[in-house]
C-alpha cells in the first residue's frame, strides 16, 4: 500500500495516513467564534505532519501544525514498546546519488539539509526508537516548523463560507476551548489508538500498549498472544527466553515481509519465535483464526481461549494461560470529529480509514 512513495513510515503495521481534506459533501450548520485562522492546519507532528509542514514552510504558506503532546513524533516515545525500530538505517550504499541513497534510508524525511539524516544519529541498522524521536524533534526545530505543542484538537466540523471557492471553512477547538479555523485541513495523526476487538473476555487481556517490557515478569509463565504482526512477534521475541510457552493466534495467517514485499508485514528482525515453533520447541503459532465466536474465560486464576474453529482443537492450545496479551494493532482516532459517524471527509479518506483499520486488525 505504497500511497506515499518512499517516505512512508510503517512500524508494525501502523500507517501514517496523510489525508488532505479539501472537498466535502456536507456542511454542518452553525458559525463559531474563531480566535485564529490559517490557510493550512495540520493535525499531528509525526513524520507525515512534519514533512508536510516542511514543504508548506518552504513555499511560504500560512500553516500551523497542532500536536497534542509536548513532543514531535510522540508515538515513538512509547512505540515500539521494546524500542527497536523496524525501519532500516542503511548508511552506506557505495553510491553518491542522493535519490538512490534516500531510497535505502527508511527513516529520514526530505529536506535540503544534508546533515539532517538519521544516518548521522545512529550506526545501528535498526536503531533505538529514541533516536527517531530526537531526529524528528531536530527536524522540527532546524526547519523552524510552526508547531503548537500541547494542543489537542477535537470538534472538527465545517461551517459555510461563501467567500471561498470551496464554500466552507474547517473549524475545531483545543482542550481549552480555543477555536481555530482553516481553509485546508490535513489530518496526519496516523493510527495510534489500540485496536481492541469486542469479544467476550477481552477485558481479561493485557494490551501491548501497557504490558511490562521486563522479561522477568514472564518468568515461567504460559503466554498466549493475540495477533501475528510485528508487535506480536516483537513481544514474543522479548519474552520467549523466560516463558514456558508462547502461543500466538490471530485473524489471518502470518504474512512474512520477505514473502509479501510489504514492509508492514512480519519482519525478519522480530521473527525469532518462528524458529522455536518450526523447530518443534514449545512455542506455537495456531493455524487457526480469531473469529467473532472467540471467547476468553478465566478459571482458577488462569485464562483459556474458546473458539468454534475446529482447527483450533489442538492439544497444546487446550491448556490455560497465565497471561493473554493483545497485540492487535492500532486504529484511527475519529473522536477528532464533531460527528465521528459522519466526519467531514470525502470518499477517499473514508475508505482509507476502513482499509487502515482492516490492515491493523490482524
Ligand atoms: C513532556 O511530557 C512528559 C510527560 O507527559 C514529561 O515527562 C517530559 O519531561 C515533557 N518534556 C518536555 C520537553 O517538556
Ligand atoms: C472564510 O474564508 C476566508 C479565507 O480562508 C477567511 O479569511 C474567513 O475568515 C472565513 N470566514 C469564516 C466565517 O470562517
From TrEMBL:
Concerning InterPro entries, the annotation shows:
Auxin_biosynth/cation_transpt (IPR050982), FAD/NAD-bd_sf (IPR036188)
The keyword Oxidoreductase is assigned to this record: yes
List keywords of the entry alphabetically.
Oxidoreductase, Signal
In which organism is this protein found?
Answer: Octopus vulgaris (Common octopus)
Q: Which domain of life is it from?
A: Eukaryota
Q: Which PANTHER family match?
A: FAD-DEPENDENT OXIDOREDUCTASE DOMAIN-CONTAINING PROTEIN 2, FLAVIN-BINDING MONOOXYGENASE-LIKE PROTEIN (AFU_ORTHOLOGUE AFUA_4G09220)
Show the Pfam families listed in the entry. Answer: Pyr_redox_3
- Molecular function GO labels: flavin adenine dinucleotide binding; monooxygenase activity
Q: What's the name of the protein?
A: FAD-dependent oxidoreductase domain-containing protein 2-like
Q: State the SUPFAM superfamilies in the record.
A: FAD/NAD(P)-binding domain
Span of the signal peptide: 1-29
| GO CC aspect terms | endoplasmic reticulum lumen
GO terms (BP aspect): ERAD pathway
Record has NAD as a keyword: no
Amino acid at each position: 500500500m505504497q500511497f506515499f512513495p518512499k517516505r512512508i513510515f510503517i512500524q508494525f503495521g501502523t500507517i501514517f495516513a496523510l489525508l488532505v481534506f479539501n472537498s466535502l459533501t456536507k456542511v454542518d450548520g452553525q458559525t463559531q467564534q474563531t480566535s485564529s485562522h490559517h490557510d493550512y492546519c495540520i493535525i499531528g507532528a509525526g513524520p507525515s505532519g512534519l514533512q508536510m509542514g516542511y514543504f508548506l514552510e518552504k513555499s511560504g504558506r500560512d500553516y500551523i501544525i497542532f500536536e497534542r503532546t509536548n513532543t514531535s513524533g510522540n508515538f515513538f516515545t512509547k512505540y515500539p514498546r521494546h524500542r527497536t525500530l523496524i525501519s532500516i538505517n542503511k548508511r552506506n550504499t557505495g553510491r553518491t546519488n542522493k535519490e538512490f541513497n534516500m531510497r535505502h534510508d527508511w527513516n529520514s524525511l526530505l529536506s535540503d539539509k544534508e546533515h539532517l539524516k538519521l544516518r548521522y544519529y545512529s550506526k545501528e541498522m535498526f536503531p533505538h526508537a529514541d533516536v527517531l524521536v530526537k531526529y524528528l524533534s531536530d527536524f522540527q526545530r532546524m526547519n523552524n516548523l510552526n508547531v503548537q505543542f500541547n494542543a489537542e484538537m477535537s470538534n472538527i466540523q465545517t461551517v459555510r463560507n461563501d467567500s471561498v471557492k470551496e464554500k466552507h471553512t474547517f473549524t475545531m477547538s483545543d482542550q481549552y476551548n480555543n477555536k481555530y479555523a482553516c481553509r485546508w485541513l490535513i489530518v496526519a495523526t496516523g493510527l495510534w489508538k489500540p485496536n481492541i476487538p469486542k469479544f467476550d473476555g477481552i477485558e481479561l487481556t493485557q494490551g501491548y500498549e501497557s504490558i511490562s517490557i521486563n522479561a522477568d515478569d514472564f518468568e515461567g509463565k504460559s503466554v498466549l498472544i493475540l495477533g501475528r504482526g510485528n508487535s506480536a512477534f516483537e513481544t514474543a521475541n522479548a519474552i520467549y527466553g523466560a516463558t514456558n510457552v508462547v502461543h500466538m493466534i490471530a485473524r489471518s495467517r502470518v504474512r512474512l515481509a520477505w514473502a509479501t514485499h510489504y514492509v508492514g508485514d512480519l519482519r525478519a528482525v522480530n521473527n525469532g519465535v518462528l524458529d522455536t515453533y518450526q523447530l518443534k520447541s514449545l512455542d506455537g503459532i495456531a493455524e487457526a483464526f480469531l473469529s467473532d465466536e472467540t471467547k476468553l474465560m478465566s478459571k482458577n486464576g488462569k485464562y483459556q481461549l474458546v473458539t468454534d474453529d475446529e482447527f483450533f482443537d489442538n492439544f497444546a492450545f487446550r491448556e490455560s494461560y497465565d497471561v493473554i496479551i493483545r497485540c492487535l494493532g492500532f486504529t484511527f482516532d475519529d473522536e477528532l470529529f464533531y460527528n465521528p459517524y459522519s466526519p467531514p471527509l470525502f470518499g477517499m479518506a473514508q475508505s482509507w480509514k476502513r482499509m487502515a483499520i482492516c490492515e491493523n486488525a490482524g
